[in-house]
UniProtKB/TrEMBL annotation:
Residues 26-274 form the NADP-dependent oxidoreductase domain. The active site is at residue 51. CDD domains: AKR_AKR3C2-3. Coiled coil: none annotated. SUPFAM superfamilies: NAD(P)-linked oxidoreductase. GO terms for molecular function: oxidoreductase activity, acting on NAD(P)H as acceptor. The record marks 76 as: Lowers pKa of active site Tyr. This is Aldo/keto reductase. Transmembrane segments: none annotated.
Length: 291
């Protein structure tokens, strides 16, 4: 399977693997790594107003010198004061990113908009941005079924994606969200997908991932590690993978999964079963957990 883009419910497409400028790069100058990621083969860049480095994401894009239409650029809406329009906020982001439009614009988290009616009102403003063409596609992040239902009710456009923490230790908990998303063709973007190997190391997944990495290394003759196995599991679940690194040396390994063979059904089941033995969620502050 090559780097086939995934279709979105608004007839656009999204590349399978994204380089993100949050988490390890939060608040840092990401220019050099963004340029390195694009030069290595990443076409999908995931930024956010809240990461406080959109200007360096923009500088990295410019330095790489790739045609705008060959790149897929995402940003996300940070907490807005009520008297500032979502459009004004996005226009500031576009200037920092040095682009005329983003490919994807997301509401970063519903946590910011818990007053009655506010989430729906913000979504209406996001829909207007799509109509104007400042964002090709629109979506949400960290939404559970309750918040998805709230904006789907009467929406002109359903969100095209929901970007959420996604790995085997939260997979079971996500099933109701994934089921609802299926009904509306909402694609999942994963973040935190490598959490089992460095945020929750020592759990039941460890030996399973190592054994699958060894199997892949033997059958392909190329080295595979546990991170790449987790990416392949995400690919099998049909999600868009958003990851990052502070180390240029990891970029080629990340990209190698685009051409890697499929996991077997048995391997997917073993990962699902090991993940279901424990529940771990790292990014609790951005998600309203009670539905
Ligand atoms: N929407 C949201 O609320 C939200 C929340 C979180 C993240 N995100 C987005 O998703 C992006 C990625 O998030 P994430 O950092 O949580 O993704 P992740 O894919 O779970 O983790 C990436 C980290 O994994 C480490 N890593 C890679 N290979 C490894 C290995 N073999 N062994 C040990 N560690 C390894 C890297 O460390 P090194 O730096 O040392 O290479 C890197 O910093 C963010 O940058 C952001 O764009 C969005």
């Amino acid at each position: 399977m090559a780097n086939t883009p995934i279709k979105l419910n608004d007839n656009t497409t999204i590349p399978l693997l994204a380089f993100g400028t949050g988490t390890a790069l939060y608040g840092t100058d990401a220019e050099h790594l963004v340029t390195a990621a694009i030069n290595a083969g990443f076409t999908h860049l995931d930024g956010a107003q809240a990461y406080k480095n959109e200007d360096s994401l923009g500088a990295g894009i410019v330095a790489a010198g790739k045609a705008r239409k060959q790149l897929f650029v995402t940003t996300k809406l940070a907490k807005q004061p009520e008297d500032k329009s979502v459009r004004d906020s996005l226009v500031e982001s576009l200037a920092k990113l040095q682009v005329d439009y983003v490919d994807l614009f997301l509401i970063h988290t519903p946590i910011y908009y818990q007053e009655p009616g506010r989430l729906k009102a913000v979504w209406r403003q996001v829909e207007a941005i799509k109509k104007e063409g400042l964002a090709r596609s629109i979506g949400v992040s960290n939404f559970r079924p309750a918040q998805l239902r709230e904006i789907l009710d009467g929406a002109e456009f359903p969100p095209s994606v929901n970007q959420i923490e996604f790995h085997p230790y939260v997979y079971n908990d996500l099933l109701p969200t994934l089921e609802l998303q299926k009904q509306y063709g909402i694609v999942t973007e994963s973040y935190g997908g490598l959490s089992p190997i460095f945020r929750f190391k020592g759990g039941p997944l460890d030996p399973v991932l190592t054994s699958i990495a060894n199997r892949l290394s033997e059958t392909t003759g190329k080295p595979f590690n546990e991170a790449e196995v987790l990416f392949l599991w995400q690919r099998e679940k049909g999600v868009v993978i958003v990851t990052t690194t502070t180390k240029e040396s990891r970029l080629a390994g990340y990209l190698s999964i685009l051409d890697a063979p499929k996991l077997t059904d048995d391997e997917i089941n073993l990962i699902d079963e090991a993940g279901a033995k424990e529940h771990h969620r790292h990014f609790v502050r951005v998600t309203i957990l009670e539905d």
